[in-house]
Structure formats: C-alpha cells, structure tokens
Design goal:
Blueprint (H helix, E strand, L loop, with lengths): L11 H7 L3 H7 L15 H7 L4 H17 L7 E3 L1 H13 L6 E6 L5 E6 L7 E5 L2 E8 L1 H7 L2 E6 L2 E5 L3
C-alpha cells in the first residue's frame, strides 16, 4: 500500500484538502459530500453510509482515491524552516509556555497551511528543524507533504509564509 493513505475515518473535508482529485472520484461514485455543509464534519464512511453505500463500495472508493495519490506527481518529502521562522516560532512557544511542545504543519480546508502546537507528533509524522535553531521542531504528515513537500516556511514582514516549489 502507498505511504500516503486515505482512510474511511477521515473527514470528507480533510480528504479533499489533502487530495483535491478525490472530489472528482467522489462525484464518479455519486457523492457530492465536499459541497455539502455536513461534509466537513462527517467521515467518509458516515457520508457513504448516509447515501446507502455498502462496505465493499466504501472500500472501492477508498482504493480509488489511494490509487490516485499513487499516480500524482511526487513532491519532495521535505520542509525547510528558515532561521527567522524558527526564531519566531521559538519566541511564540516561549511566550505561550509551550516550549516543550512541537509544531505541526497542517492544511486547512481551503488548502492554506496552518501551524498548530501539540504535545507529540502523530504516528508517521516527519520531523524537520533549522540547523541554526535545532530546538525548534516542526512536523508534517506524509499526506501534508504530498501537497506542500519541498516548501520553505519563512517569516517575512511579521507573517509566516509558505513558499511552494513550482
């Protein structure tokens, strides 16, 4: 199985954010969940069951989405954290009393990136740091790296920026 893996327990919104082509695949199955207001909070399995799908059809849908991930152009499985961004993250962590926590890079439902503090990484998350500020660690899932891999996180004009590779 592919290292990038969609599961039936993920929300529809999360799947579409991480794998935009999943929307087309869902349409082929007769699902328009990504345009439904409840699609953002229900899992793929819940949405499928609400539309009368049996477990075999749900599995086939998940397989088709995961196959599409495998056919997508590969992005580097790296993130670069600039010194300025690392220093700013460290300062924020200190100010908020979260110096022992890690920072996770995620995507929002519009495809924008978010930085969130949490206690520990999730299973399979990949660690990145800046060699000049090694105590500041960021993590990203393999699925997130499938969308933004190879990008640089920088701080410019007081705002974090994600510079994507073309």
């Amino acid at each position: 199985m592919n290292a990038l893996c969609i599961t039936k327990d993920m929300t529809v919104r999360e799947i579409i954010t991480l794998v935009p082509v999943a929307a087309d695949i869902m349409i082929e199955y007769g699902l328009h969940c990504f345009s439904c207001s409840i699609g953002g909070v229900e899992t793929l399995a819940e949405g499928c069951r609400m539309h009368g799908f049996d477990e075999d059809t749900i599995s086939a849908l998940i397989d088709d989405i995961n196959d599409a991930i495998g056919k997508a152009p590969k992005r580097p499985q790296t993130l670069t954290l600039t010194k300025d961004a690392a220093l700013a993250i460290g300062a924020i962590a200190k100010e908020q009393g979260r110096e022992e926590e890690i920072l996770v890079v995620t995507l929002d439902e519009r495809g924008g990136f978010c930085l969130e503090f949490q206690d520990t990484p999730l299973h399979g998350d990949v660690e990145f740091s800046c060699s000049e500020v090694p105590h500041v660690r960021i993590y990203a899932s393999v699925l997130t790296l499938g969308r933004i891999g190879g990008a640089t996180i920088d701080l410019r004009d007081g705002v974090f920026k994600l510079d994507l590779l073309s």
